[in-house]
């Protein structure tokens, strides 16, 4: 401790006696040129946002606001009129805007506001129904709803939570229209009075406030700024270095005269930092707990069984048998009181601020499909979160295709079974994209997340990175690339390749399919020069030149299946998302004969291509 104290003292002495620099500090220059601005007495606008009256270098492209009197306005190509901004959350990258009207009739489709930069945050679906008699509102039914001209037919109108459907209303009610959307939960920083977030609560809150939160995303810089704001600092931009920087907020300079005063200040500062860390961590944990409980209140009618932590310990026999380790926690074998075997995932406290837990329950907690793993229950006590899944005897597909035994035997499954597994996975993804009220984008399709039952039927698992979006518009706003290296679509890294959508899952499926067929990883950490062994290029060249893939045990009909699966995979991994098939089309392709297949264009640009085309 004495060594640390002495080191801090030296640092402080150095900082207080350092001579002034002859060159101006570029960080100070940025804030001198781009001070926080506002529209009259309105919101404070600062980097990465900027007002139109500020220099273009004061904000990121696409994050421009304007003024009308004291109102701050956001202009979107998807909105006929500018939207008034009522709140800005730099930490969460959210703008709260006035949607113009809070009426639920006619149907409101807030997803239509989405652009390449902005996307409505956390929407929930609803349908509009007309009832012959009065209808009693409930947790998932909001009403009565006022409709233009609705008084003429004498009907009572109501908004019904989409996932409950017509089962939530009496038989004398009929559906008028579907596909409506309202914010699923309000921005807690600006609406602390709303503590419960059932559908009726959020629908009525939207009618009152007319507000919807839009998240912004323009690349890595705005994500860095969000982390900077999270720490209570201010973000700026170094034009010379073309990068963002984070400046601590500071008050007036204080000159310390005596050495004892400096020492006392250091001690006080150290104690304060320790206390701030302790209380800050505690406050963050409470915020995460509140976030999870609000979510559970929203989905109380659809979520699976809730267990206590002590029950989880009994189910897993005090976490006796560990099945594996994932990106968000450890998985243990267990057994429910009724004797059903289960797999229990204990989520790590430091991961995701409850996001992975919420994503899992919000997606697979309310859907059932033969090719999607079932979520049987969960636990949420303080910062302890657990998810209980059905137990699948054969583990992950990764163990089957990449195990040492698989390498020795060249392929532990025959090609007919590999094809069946591929079709099952494709049907599962197709259901996520097309079979639910809201489209579910998985964003982490890979062999490790495909589980196999005792008959080697595949089930998609691990929805921790999933996102919900409208079935009509699957373009989503991303703060950073999601997924696992080797399976992430190019557009997840750069907008130059296109927009992030359901086609990103198609790309991941294509990479997975190549690995299933060849038994080779598309990214092998044991090989230093990955360019020389890029799996799609290796496979494509052998396919077009009819060279051997080195699958010694594959003969006859199995060879045709291999070629067919490779052709489907190469269509799926086209770099341009628009050239990839939908998952519905992928399922159809997998059912065709090889003779009906067309070899796709090369799904990548090799070094030889770039050299040969440079002279054209």
Outline:
One of its GO terms (cellular component) is membrane. Among the domains are: 305-390, Phosphorylase Kinase, domain 1 (2-Layer Sandwich), CATH 3.30.200.20; 397-613, Transferase(Phosphotransferase), domain 1, CATH 1.10.510.10.
Biggest sheet details? 7 strands, mixed
Structural class: alpha+beta
Radius of gyration, taken over Cα atoms and rounded to an integer in Å? 28 Å
Whole-number mean pLDDT: 78
| Basic shape | globular
Secondary structure: helix percent: 25-40%
The CATH architecture of the domain at 397-613: Orthogonal Bundle
Report the CATH C-level class of the domain at 397-613: Mainly Alpha
User: Count the strands?
Assistant: 23
Membrane topology: Single-pass type I membrane protein
Subcellular location: Membrane
Organism: Iris pallida
Transmembrane segments: 256-279
């Amino acid at each position: 401790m004495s060594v640390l104290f002495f080191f801090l003292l030296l640092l402080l002495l150095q900082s207080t006696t350092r001579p002034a620099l002859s060159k101006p500090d570029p960080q100070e220059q940025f804030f001198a040129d781009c001070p926080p601005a506002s529209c009259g007495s309105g919101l404070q606008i600062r980097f990465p946002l900027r007002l139109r009256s500020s220099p273009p270098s004061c904000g990121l492209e696409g994050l421009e606001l304007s003024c009308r009197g004291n109102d701050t306005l956001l202009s979107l190509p998807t909105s006929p009129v500018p939207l008034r901004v009522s709140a800005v959350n730099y930490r969460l990258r959210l703008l709260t805007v006035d949607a113009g009207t809070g009426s639920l009739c006619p149907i409101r489709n807030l997803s239509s506001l989405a652009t390449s930069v902005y996307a409505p945050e956390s929407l929930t679906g609803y349908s509009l129904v007309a009832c012959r008699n009065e209808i009693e509102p409930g947790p998932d039914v909001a009403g009565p709803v006022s409709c233009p001209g609705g008084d003429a037919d004498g009907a009572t109108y109501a908004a019904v939570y989409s996932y409950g459907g017509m089962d939530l209303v009496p038989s004398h009610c009929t559906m008028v229209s579907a596909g409506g959307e309202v914010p699923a939960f309000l921005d807690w920083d600006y609406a602390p009075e709303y503590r419960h977030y059932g559908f009726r609560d959020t629908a009525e809150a939207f009618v009152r406030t007319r507000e919807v939160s839009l998240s912004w995303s323009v690349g890595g810089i705005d994500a860095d700024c969000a982390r900077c704001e999270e720490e209570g600092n201010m973000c700026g931009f170094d034009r010379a270095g073309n990068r963002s920087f984070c400046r601590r907020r500071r008050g007036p300079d204080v000159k310390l005269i005596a050495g004892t005063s400096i020492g006392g200040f250091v001690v006080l500062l150290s104690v304060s930092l320790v206390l701030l860390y302790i209380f800050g961590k505690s406050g963050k944990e409470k915020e995460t707990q509140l976030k999870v409980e609000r979510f559970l209140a929203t989905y109380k009618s659809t979520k699976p069984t809730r267990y206590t932590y002590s029950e989880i310990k009994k189910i897993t026999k005090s976490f006796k048998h560990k099945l594996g380790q994932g990106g968000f926690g450890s998985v243990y074998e267990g057994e429910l009181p009724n004797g059903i075997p289960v797999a229990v995932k204990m989520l790590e406290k430091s991961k995701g601020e409850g996001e992975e837990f919420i994503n899992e329950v919000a997606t697979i907690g309310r859907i059932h499909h033969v090719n999607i793993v079932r979520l049987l229950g969960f636990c949420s006590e303080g910062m302890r979160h657990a998810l209980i899944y059905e137990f699948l005897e054969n583990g992950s597909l990764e163990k089957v295709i990449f195990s040492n035994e698989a390498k020795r035997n060249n392929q532990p499954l025959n090609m007919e079974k590999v094809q069946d597994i591929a079709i099952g996975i494709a049907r599962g993804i197709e259901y996520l994209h097309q079979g639910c009220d809201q489209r579910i984008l998985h964003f982490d399709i890979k062999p490790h997340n495909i589980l196999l039952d005792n008959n080697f039927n595949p089930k998609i698992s691990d929805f921790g990175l999933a996102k919900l979006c409208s079935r009509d518009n699957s373009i989503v706003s991303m703060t950073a690339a999601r997924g696992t290296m080797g399976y992430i679509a190019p557009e997840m890294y750069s907008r130059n390749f296109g927009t992030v959508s359901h086609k990103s899952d198609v790309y991941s499926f294509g990479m997975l399919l190549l690995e299933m067929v060849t038994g080779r990883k598309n990214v092998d950490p044991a090989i230093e020069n990955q360019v020389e062994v890029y799996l799609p290029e290796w496979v494509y060249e052998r396919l077009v030149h009819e060279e051997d893939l080195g699958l010694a045990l594959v003969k006859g009909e199995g060879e045709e299946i291999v070629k067919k699966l490779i052709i489907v995979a190469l269509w799926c991994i086209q770099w341009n998302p628009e050239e990839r098939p939908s998952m519905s089309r992928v399922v159809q392709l997998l059912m065709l004969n090889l003779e009906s297949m067309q070899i796709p264009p090369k799904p990548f640009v090799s070094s030889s291509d770039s050299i040969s085309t440079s002279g054209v």
